[in-house]
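Practice problem. Given the sequence and the SMILES for magnesium ion, write out the predicted structure.
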Amino acid sequence: MSWSNFVTNSKIGKKYANVQFNEKMHPEIRELGEKWIINPDKNLILQGSCGRGKTFFLYSLIKGFLERRCVYSGLGQMRFYKSNVLDDKLLVEQKLYGRNTQLIEDISDYKFLFIDDLGVEKPYDRTLTDLWNIIDQRMEKENITVFSTNLSDKSIEETYGNRIYSRFKEYQRIQFKGIDMRDL
Ligand SMILES: Nc1ncnc2c1ncn2[C@@H]1O[C@H](COP(=O)(O)OP(=O)(O)OP(=O)(O)O)[C@@H](O)[C@H]1O
Ligand SMILES: [Mg+2]
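Answer key:
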């Protein structure tokens, strides 16, 4: 998949079509992103308040990743979801078939999974169980996951419980600080 196909398929807003690692990013964060697309072997969690550039950075990762995908053999297996869209999909499957284990397995099998805005979905029991299953299975299979979220560590622990929080401790954290870039 090319980046332009990805933009169309994933219904990404026009304003993110030309994302790239740039000088508006904190140098350490930019460097980390540039290294990750060359060697995407770490689970990442992008944390920070609204407007700090997490989604912009996430799309920059995906763009760089897709542009270099020929480097990796056996790839071709990546997905991107807004967290609430993935949760709706899991709910629909559950309602239609009485269970969503196959969908969870499929999602766990993608070599790379990018999820934007973890925490916007409502934390019902089913949501938490599904999320835990996805995170746990993906770690077991050593597939790579990148999350972005507005939630702090404390909120993650409170919202998702210790079993999910504990697994996130194995992720590399990237803290997005500074001002709300939407105020500029
Ligand atoms: N590195 C960058 N270069 C240029 N514009 C940027 C950059 N990072 C962020 N922006 C712009 O700043 C605004 C906020 O960025 P973004 O949407 O990535 O924030 P966010 O952290 O995902 O916020 P939220 O938590 O509300 O989803 C957007 O308009 C985005 O285009
Ligand atoms: Mg965002």
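Check your answer against the key. Residues 54-55, 116-117 surround magnesium ion (ligand 2) (CB under 6 Å).
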